[in-house]
Structures are given as C-alpha cells and as structure tokens.
Known about the structure:
Elements: H1 2-38, H2 56-85, H3 101-104
Amino acid sequence: MAATAIQELQDSFLSAIRKNQEITLDAVKVWVEAVESITPKVPYARLPLADLVPSAHHVVAGSFDFAEQVLASQRRFADDVLKLTAPLLPAWEPTAAPEGPQAAGEA
C-alpha cells in the first residue's frame, strides 16, 4: 500500500520534471531562432589546439556517465549498510533486493 503511494509520488515528480524540461526546450528553441535571425553568420575560426578540447556533447556525456557510476556506488553502499544493520531492527527477516526499473537503474 505504502509502496504504491510512494510510486505514485515518484511518478508525479518525474512527470513534472519531464514537463518542465519540455517547456524549457521549447523556450530555448524560440530563443535560438530569435537570436539566429538577428545575428550575422560568422565564419568558423580555427584556433590552435582546438581539436584537443572535448566537444560539449562529450563533456555532458562523460559527466552523466560519471554521475551514474557515483550513484550506483552509493546505492551499493546504502544496501550494504542496510544489510549490516538489519539484525538490529525488530522482526528482522532477510528479503530479496527490490525488483523493477529502480532496482535495475532504469529510472
């Protein structure tokens, strides 16, 4: 029962995030189109050593990959702490790890 209520809250929260992201993307698109229409086309300048600088896409992808690894490590640590401290809780019974998208890291 409580898990259903928690899942509903999580779904609502994620839905709100997605909606805000869509609104932000629409605003950025309008802004880019407006700026693009009033700025002159500037030729691409070749800077020395520019090929050594990673692309913005590469930086973002690398940052999120690292964040995923940190979060997965923290989850394993939290699970280990819960396993170790579970005998201190009343009516302790070992259970299997939760299943579903969150357990698989697909949230």
